[in-house]
Amino acid sequence: MGHQPTAIPSIRRLGQPGDLGWVVMAHGEVYATEFGWNADFEALVARIVADYATDHDPAREAAWIAELDGRRVGCVFCVASDQTTAQLRILLVHPDARGHRLGARLVDECLTFARQAGYERMKLWTNDPLVAARHIYLSRGFDLVEEEEHHSFGVDLVGQVYERDLRAPTTAAGNAIAQPAR
Asked: 17-63 pLDDT, tens per residue?
């Protein structure tokens, strides 16, 4: 057998035909398989995607698709929460593409875009089983600011809100520099 070259994953702006549908489908399939979440989650993602598709401000909101071997394998959205706060939404890396640091790269795209768009803060909502995503958020300077137990998507979860000050000094990689305790 010949050695197959390792494909280099890429990230591009969302906007090709099929991107929106893929985001909804991939979330539904991956979360059902990995966490047993029901179609309520896919419906939530569909609403987020539809809201973005029908009414977003390109200067203040954007979305990205990660590709590997010409296939969509990841996504993330950056939308306005309010005038000063961006919200990172629906980060996903398909299991077939994990290990390429795509989750971190997608989050970095969001952070860079949000800073350039003039936001002061970024927030996100996630749930406790999403350990790999939480690791990325913490490594990028996000702080856990709120937790609440809830029953959603057919399972018991702990919802978590993370926030990050985008005005804080950053390293070359875009990570927040730890500030001394006051």
From this structure: 999 999 999 999 999 999 999 999 999 999 999 999 999 999 999 99
Report the predicted TM-score, pTM, of the whole model to 2 decimal places: 0.88
Taking alpha carbons only, the member of 4, 23, 25 closest to residue 15 is 23
CATH class of 10-165: alpha beta
Closest listed residue to residue 36, CA positions, set 148, 113, 129, 169: 129
Rounded to whole angstroms, how far apart are CA atoms 121 and 31? 28
Q: Taking the domains of the chain in order of start, what are their residue ranges?
A: 10-165
Contacts of 133 (CB under 8 A, 6+ apart): 91, 103, 126
Angle, helices 102-116 vs 131-139, to 10°: value is 50
Q: 35, exposed or middle or buried, with CB in 10 Å at 0-12, 13-18, 19+?
A: middle
Task: State pLDDT tens for residues 141-160.
Answer: 999 999 999 999 999 999 99
| Cα gap 119→36, rounded to integer Å | 35
